[in-house]
Amino acid sequence: xxxxxxxxxxxxxxxxxxxxxxFLIKGYSEGTIPDYQMAAFLMAVFFRKLxxxxxxxxxxxxxxxxxxxDLSDVKGFKVDKHSxxxxxxxxxxxxxxxxxxxxxxxxxxxxxxxxxTGGTVDKLExxxxxxxxxxxxxxxxxxxxxxxxxxxxxEKIAIADKKIYALRDVTGTVENTGLITSSIMSKKLASGxxxxxxxxxxxxxxxxxxxxxxxxxxxxxVDIGNKAGKKTMAVIxxxxxxxxxxxxxxxxVAEAIEVLKGKGPEDITELSVFLAGMMISMSxxxxxxxxxxxxxxxxxxxxxxxxxxxxxxxxxxxxEVADNPELMGKAMxxxxxxxxxxxxxxxxxxxxxxxASRHTGAGREKxxxxxxxxxxxxxxxxxxxxxxxxxxxCRVYGDSEEKLEAAASICAEAFEIEKEKPCERxxxxxxxxx
Length: 434
Ligand code: URA
Known about the structure:
Layout: H1 3-11, H2 18-30, H3 35-48, H4 52-63, E1 79-83, H5 91-101, E2 106-110, H6 120-125, H7 136-146, E3 148-152, H8 159-169, H9 177-190, E4 195-202, H10 211-227, E5 231-238, E6 246-247, H11 249-260, H12 266-284, H13 288-300, H14 303-314, E7 333-338, E8 343-348, H15 350-360, E9 376-379, E10 386-387, E11 392-398, H16 401-414, E12 415-418, E13 428-432
Parallel strand pairs: 1-4, 2-3, 4-5
Antiparallel strand pairs: 5-13, 6-9, 7-11, 8-10, 8-12, 9-11
Helix pairs in contact: 1-3, 2-4, 4-9, 5-11, 5-12, 5-13, 5-14, 9-10, 12-13, 15-16
The structure holds uracil.
Uracil (URA) binds at residues 84-85, 165, 174, 179-180, 183-184, 207.
């Protein structure tokens, strides 16, 4: 088999055979196919697309390029929740302890933030002392005793995806349904859970810009998950404006704690309760309405916050952050962005806020960059809020004047103000695979 024939075939819009796809992934993982040929192949896929059949084979080949986690010693039906990436998306910090407080075993592997999107691992590291790596044995023991453990994604899982994702990131080939499906699902199928709950985002702050593209991606991922024997569901959600008000690591942990106390912003509360409800429904085999009702109860009666404290303590973190988030530290500098006219906030561009947050030092440009865990953006106004000229729209936090300058001007561009109050937008658009 020849790599050049495979590239040419895809370039000309032809369907690849299973053998060709397996040859490509094996060769690239082992280093016999160089980056430049893989990059050419990815660009051909970007323009010519992959069929569902090709995507299934690609996903399986990528899954098999690394270890498959065995969580059979963790009791109960384990559901993995995964978001396709967003801005201010701290739902795992909330949905995981809520679901665990309701009896769902949460054995989760999470990633770090890259580009304009955040990652759960960075957020958890904002908690003093928190350990994101546990031995395989400690991980299983903690889920069996405390009902919850969250660790960083193993480097050994879906090795081909790590190489391919890094290459896509620098060749403009991220936004493609087949490539995103295979990237996410290869990792999810290797992660040892019994069920997969996907939060597929659409809008300005998501890879998928339209609801239709998000629905297609969701359907492909659900079909592949179910075909591989994992109960899989997807929720399509709006990512046009940031979720909640906090964007940046310690700021987001503090907001998640507010949600667990029943005092968080409406949108992040609604989505987190919904996702926790779906996890409960999938794991405990109850209706989604019953799952959501149990999730709400866990917040109301304080058991979700208690579970969060226990989870933090078990992983070496200081559980007192739940009562005093300032223990996570504070940025040295703050700059306010104010409204330049009266009216209503009609848009807050999530992508721009995500980029501004990265400029404060809260995110990384490339893998391995160090970040400022206390930097970020705090929205004071959300879409549809009324504002008067001079009102603070958002605050930008960081430790460098220069970085705040850059972040502040992007934040100012992210807000649009109109005279008329805009209509409300639905946050949760659809559920696929219920
Ligand atoms: N997240 C992933 O893991 N892969 C993608 O391709 C996009 C988002």
